[in-house]
Amino acid sequence: MDFVRIGMMSDIPKGGMKGFVIDGKKILVAEVDGKYYAMDSVCSHMKGPLEKGTLAGKDIQCPWHGSIFDVTTAKVVGGPAMRDLVSYEVKSENGEVFVKL
Ligand code: FES
Predict the structure, then answer these.
(1) Does the model's pTM come out above 0.85?
(2) What is the pLDDT of residue 25?
């Protein structure tokens, strides 16, 4: 797939994240130490909204039952979720953020 423009870098708070729905797919984009990462935002445990969770460094904690995912890889680092999610390539150009879906 191609890169899709999702918004401006300024839309995504430093050290924070924001959720997007693109073609019906729910993703989040997070900023960690000046780099942007994108991954599915629907928790693999019981579909909790990860974009409403908390981001500490590169760890996102699901607001529902506390599973933790590494936002740089979309892999589970703490249960109860057991299935990794999908991460997406991100690039930024001229202040805009693009995600390859
Ligand atoms: S839905 Fe995310 S931990 Fe349960």
Answers:
(1) yes
(2) 94
